[in-house]
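Sanity check

After download, print the first record. It should look like this:
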Amino acid sequence: MEVTLQKAEEIDIRVSAPPSKSYTHRALITSALADGRSVLEYPLYSTDTAVTENGLARLGVRIDRNGERMVVQGCGGALDCREGTELLMGDSGTSCRFLTSVALLCGNPVTITGSPRLNERPIGGLVGALNSIGGRIRFLGPPGFPPILVEGELAGGAVSVEGSVSSQYASSLLLAAPCARSPVELALPPGGVSLAYLDVTADVMASFGVSLQRRGYEHFRVVPAPYRARNYRIEGDYSSASYFFAIAAVCGGRVRVDNLNPASVQGDRRLLDALVGMGCTVSSHGSTIALESDGCLQGIERDMSASPDIVQTLCMVAAKAGSPSRFTGISHLEFKESDRIRAIIGVIQALGGEASCEKGAITIRPAPLHGGVIDAGNDHRTAMSAAVLGLAVGAVTITGAECVSKSFPDFWKILNEVGLI
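Expected structure tokens:
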């Protein structure tokens, strides 16, 4: 699928943020492990969340879709896994990491594998941590990477997990910890990334009746206790909303985004602060957040280690700024659905911009921009962030644009409905 974008100026649009992918993944797992029937209202239906949904079904959990709801028959922490169960994770790193810990609750071995790209993404830190508290997980290929064979149990105890690649290792452990045989004491060494996602994990766990004892992002304690089934509404996604805020920033004009929780713990809310620093104005009323821009932007410097999913978006905005920008804390982007550091530089340079990476930081300098062709590289965030710059520049074609189905299937449809394509 190809999408061609023409230059847009002085926009005035109103859209609704889709449901949060991060919240949907976590709510699927907590409701699956709960004792009883849960109803997830307005979950995100996407390629990525479907992988978690189907994986849980393979582990014996019944999940029924009913319009804008998922009905989940929880297993009370006792999964009914058949012998020879295999989980196919596609490109979903989140599903792979989260379900690795969950699979330890099965009575039979479980094989977990995925696409060629997924099998290049590291999981050794999580496997080592799980093996220290009862797991007997083995690598079926190169050590440190999927595919893996999950055996053993989740015994509990003290465990440390490194977070320099992803906070999902820690979230995976925490989500399964209420079903462990004894309390789990989780320590995170300094240098972790994407830590705000641990707040999302804690928020969902608390909503399903399990409260974490924690000391910042350094130490967590979970006492075994059943998740409680409930009706749960998925909040709107700041990661997906970020593209619309960025489009207004670079094109000038105004965007209003509905269905956002102004008090959300989602780390990608930080994009709004960054855009204010670049010269935009932000206001909120209830669940609607508005951004206005005159299109005259200035460069900024930011540590992005806590918010990896908005780095590409912010870099596209920076390419339109009148002064240089520098973003640090981005080294772990190499291990995403694609090498996103290379993708950022490739998109900006393909459109005439100036971007470079040195010592774990991306620097973007002002340069005349022009149209061109961008290959999304099967990465949804590359496609959607390139659309931001495409609308600012014009005559930009994005190939492989269908990959947005991973997190935001209606992205192109919404841009068409508001007249931007």
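If your output differs, re-run the checksum step. Summary of this record's structure: The first helix runs from residue 21 to 33.
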